Amino acid sequence: MPEYPEGLPIGSGWVSTETEPVLFPYDGSTIGSAPAGTPELATQAIDAAVAVAREVAALPSRTRRSLLNDVAAALKVSREAFEKLLVAETGKPLVDCQVEVARTIVTWEAAAEEVSRLHGETVPLDLLPSGDGLVGFWKRKPIGVVVGIAGFNYPLLLASHKIAPAIAAGCPVVVKPAPQTPLATLWLVHLVREAARSLDVPAATVQLVTGDADVGSALVTDRRIGAVSFTGSAAVGHRIARDAAPTKTLLELGSNAALVVAGDADLDAAADAVLRGGFYASGQACISVQRVLVVAEVADALTERVLARLGEVITGDPREESTRVSALIDERSTARVLEWVGKATSAGAKLAGGGGVENGVISPTVLLDVPDGAECWEEEVFGPVVCVRTVSDVDEAFAAVNASRYGLHASVFSTSLKTAFRALDELEVGGVVVNEVPGFRSDTMPYGGVKDSGIGREGPRFAIEELTVTRMAVLRP
User: Fold this and answer.
1) Cα 109-110-115 angle, rounded to 5 deg
2) Which one, of 293, 290, 313, lies nearest residue 302 by Cα?
3) Residue 18 CB neighbours (<10 A)
């Protein structure tokens, strides 16, 4: 286990609290303990953040950039230890945790680069006669204290997408990790505060409070904060938006990502994308392949390819390098996924592969022709389940993609440039990926959804814009 002070990093030090066990999802064993936060401690953290907000906003850009780069360097030093810790607390396969740490480092480095690009523009005020002789320009100012709430599936990366842009923007940030996965984020915050100390930056620039919904409510309903950045379920995100109003909320709420296979697609590549994109992170990714819409003329051929290779998706202990699917975050999630699969088959879907559970691990599952209304089709499964539906043509496929209440990422496999650009124009999603999995994400690109998949964009450049406000200057020399 990593070494950092006991308690919660609140204010200038660490506050002692009671502790709760953290469990290894694969076998239920205890891997460590985490401090237990309370609503009172959440308010204490906001108090401390408000107290340093002006000082943090005034930090020179060179200091903010150095802090971000120093954290990236510290992450590189402890890369393997972070990977092992993530496997232990998330139960996610090692290969996915390795990717998470690599992406986390890129996120901090990219945020550092964006500090030098945080600037405004001049405005031609004399487009109206009343503006003659006036000089106008705008600059970006920090939005204030940021509350960042992260999900359990990528705890280190998701927390970084809250913390790093906040620092770059000049905002103090209070982060709350998911109750199941607090350890990697605690260590990250310790590294940030150590880097801050070496640069004479207030420790309260970055704080962390653990806890349940009551702690989260205390954070997001505090009228002194400037913005809330949340990653999690749609239901919780909607509640946060209502409770936090009129505070700005940035919501990344997941999806039931679709992959469209046109008649002219490279079927081997499409089948590979279904297997890679449907089961990474044990299916616990908001842009993993969940709905496959394949044109009738190639439906049988694609399905045969997918089922023939389903055995390549190795299940078992997440600590093994070969494992691709392991236990979900907790038994409740496993029971829910299995229940949804059962309800889909009862509604008429065909179980073409998987569907069982062994040693607590759900087998990679393929369902055919899941009907509308079934949770496996309509909602976010967040497990190793892929639903394949045959459609008559691309028009029907695009209509089915857009019929969802979600819209985060979708992908299209086709050799037609016309189909690719149609997808870009017509699909109601935040990102369209052509001839690759919908789960592709570069951490420097704008990332976010439409409809119930949320509002706002992540990616350092875009998150920094979300966490700043324009201040207009009008001068008569």
Assistant:
1) 100
2) 293
3) 9
* 10 CB-near residues (< 8 Å, 6+ apart): 41, 44, 45, 48, 204, 207, 208, 209
> b/e map of 262-272 (b: 16 or more CB within 10 Å)?
bbebebeebbb
Report CA dihedral (116, 117, 119, 123) to the nearest 10 degrees: 150
Distance CA 320, CA 214 (A): 37
Residue 86: which of 188, 192, 184, 189 has the closest Cα? 184
**What are the φ/ψ torsions at residue 3 (nearest 5 degrees)?**
-105, 125
Distances (CA, A) of 397 to 297, 413, 423: 13, 12, 10
pTM exceeds 0.70, yes or no: yes
The residues annotated with a catalytic role in the active site are 252, 286
Q: For 49-99, what is each residue's pLDDT tens digit?
A: 999 999 999 999 999 999 999 999 999 999 999 999 999 999 999 999 999
Neighbour-count burial for 120-148, b at 16+ CB within 10 Å, e otherwise: eeebebeeeeeeeeeeeebebebbbbbbb
For range 316-325, the mean pLDDT: 98
Instruction: Read off φ and ψ for residue 74, nearest 5 degrees.
Output: -65, -35
Query: What is the chain's mean pLDDT, rounded?
Result: 98
Sign of CA dihedral 176, 182, 184, 186: positive
Mean per-residue pLDDT, 284-292: 98
How wide is the angle at C-alpha 331 spanned by C-alphas 327 and 336, nearest 5°? Answer: 100
Q: Band of the pLDDT at 2, cuts 50, 70, 90? A: confident
Domains, the chain, with CATH or none: 8-254+451-475 (3.40.605.10), 258-434 (3.40.309.10)
What are the residues whose beta carbons fall under 8 Å from the beta carbon of 242, sequence distance 6 or more? none
- Which is it for strands 258-261 and 291-295: parallel, antiparallel or unpaired? parallel
